[in-house]
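Researcher: We plan to redesign the surface later, but first we want a full-length starting point. Tokens attached.
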């Protein structure tokens, strides 16, 4: 399943991501000591770990010896391997003193290969890679400045990962996208937030990072320009390391940490060092990612907080929505003010500020409705809804505004449907409806620099990208905001399979 989606703007990702060197023995030991691998404290598990390490060492010794023996078997010394040949080979390997030797046999160099061939180029067993294959591999790994990147938080067969997908627009107007690389996550991902604040540089700068909230209380931030990275470059909060062994009496959290799952994240695009998080521990936290600390905690809700959203026009205004049937608007310049609490009719699923109107925001609810609000109506009793839209038959799990076309909204629901709405004059009207075969929809996201492209993820785990401009209603009402010619509308229900990668169902409509 795909639980969250984030777009990376064009030209941000490194052309060829750097490959991380495999960890050294010392680094592996440090990871184990840090508790990252959830190593148990009891002595039985420690004994098992030691046995596993010893077994791995023995397996490595044996595999090295077998490889050497195989290499001897492949030499043109004899065409058969009789008893005498075997005895001679074992003498050469000196297996009786194998563990005492400091220097192992170098299979493909002086010990074997150079005995018969002056150079590797002359060895028929060492084939040179096809240069064309190398060029193709480099081309596949290259992310061009014209490519967009989509980050999917997905879980398949109990394996959770971030999937980095490249999306390119071809010269003929068609689209192509494929999986570029993956980042393995230690826990089930619930939400993501892309950020270009380079936390590796003092004072910030441009970067390509993604924050991930999971079923654990810690927030992990990963560098998307690295391949085969084993650990996040920054962790906010989480469980403190234990200093003493013994029976667990309680969980010790790092200072400022959430104490339950992280359900929502949003990065402040104006004040770039701040990241807001919502948690099942009923709190909202603001993190200073430059310093790596919790900057402030808000406890205005009485139940799980599902979503947070910064106002892109007013960077001090923060929304939070909860299962306590309320939405709170706070101004971070006044930390002692409780904010304006608005009552809604059901559990809050998602929040979205209108990118074209600094005073308007939307709330999607578990009962299938979407409500619009205007902050100018705020009072001691909160804000009154400017409209209520009965959008779906089941929870509206995701809402997203089109950044290109004012008043164009997409909604996704666990009823498997994705709908497009025109919100002009606070009188919503549906302009398109589609079942994209994603299963129950959990996440939708319009691209900021690929006009009218909508990414969808759901329970089936297939990333879908819908070119909404192919819909007649969208082209007629919003086509004037596009800088490209609207594609010919497809027949209802028709789908185009762009490319599949290892049967992961990457497709576009």
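Model: Full-length starting sequence:
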């Amino acid at each position: 399943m795909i639980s969250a989606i984030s777009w990376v703007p064009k030209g941000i990702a490194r052309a060829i991501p750097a490959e991380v060197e495999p960890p050294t023995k010392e680094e592996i030991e440090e990871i184990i000591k840090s508790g990252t691998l959830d190593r148990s404290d009891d002595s039985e598990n420690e004994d098992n770990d030691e046995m596993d390490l010893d077994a791995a060492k023995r397996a490595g010794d044996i595999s090295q010896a077998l490889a050497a023996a195989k290499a001897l078997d492949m030499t043109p010394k004899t065409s058969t391997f009789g008893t005498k040949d075997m005895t001679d080979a074992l003498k050469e390997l000196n297996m009786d003193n194998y563990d005492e030797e400091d220097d192992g046999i170098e299979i493909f160099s002086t010990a074997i290969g150079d005995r018969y061939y002056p150079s590797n180029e002359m060895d028929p067993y060492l084939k040179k890679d096809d240069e064309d294959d190398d060029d193709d591999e480099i081309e596949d790994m290259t992310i061009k400045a014209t490519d967009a990147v989509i980050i999917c938080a997905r879980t398949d067969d109990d394996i959770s990962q971030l999937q980095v997908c490249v999306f390119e627009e071809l010269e003929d107007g068609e689209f192509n996208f494929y999986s570029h690389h993956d980042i393995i996550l230690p826990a089930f991902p619930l939400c993501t937030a892309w950020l270009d604040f380079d936390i590796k540089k003092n004072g910030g700068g441009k970067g390509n990072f993604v924050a991930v909230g999971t079923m654990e209380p810690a927030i992990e931030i990963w560098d998307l320009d690295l391949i085969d990275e084993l650990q996040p470059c920054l962790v906010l909060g989480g469980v403190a390391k234990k200093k003493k062994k013994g029976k667990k009496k309680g969980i010790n959290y790092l200072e400022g940490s959430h104490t339950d799952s992280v359900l929502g994240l949003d990065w402040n695009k104006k004040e770039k060092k701040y990241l807001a998080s919502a948690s099942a521990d009923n709190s909202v936290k603001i993190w200073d990612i430059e310093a790596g600390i919790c900057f402030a905690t808000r406890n205005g809700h009485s139940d799980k907080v599902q979503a947070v959203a910064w106002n892109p026009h007013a960077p001090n205004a923060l929304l939070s929505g909860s299962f306590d049937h309320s939405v709170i608007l706070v101004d971070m310049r006044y930390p002692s003010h409780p904010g304006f609490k608005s009552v809604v009719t059901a559990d809050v699923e998602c929040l979205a500020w209108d990118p074209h109107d600094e005073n308007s925001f939307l709330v999607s609810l578990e009962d299938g409705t979407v409500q619009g609000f205007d902050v100018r109506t705020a009072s001691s009793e909160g804000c009154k809804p400017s409209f209520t839209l009965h959008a779906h038959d089941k929870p509206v799990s995701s809402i997203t505004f089109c950044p290109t076309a004012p008043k164009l909204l997409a909604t996704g629901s666990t009823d498997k449907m994705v709908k497009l709405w025109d919100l002009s004059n606070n009188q919503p009207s549906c302009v398109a409806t589609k079942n994209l075969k994603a299963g129950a929809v959990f996440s939708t996201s319009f691209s900021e620099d690929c006009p009218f492209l909508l990414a969808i993820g759901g329970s089936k785990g297939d990333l879908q990208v819908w070119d909404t401009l192919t819909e007649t209603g969208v082209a007629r009402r919003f086509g004037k905001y596009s800088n490209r010619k609207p594609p010919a509308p497809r027949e209802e229900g028709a789908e185009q399979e762009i490319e599949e990668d290892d049967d992961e169902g990457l497709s576009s409509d």
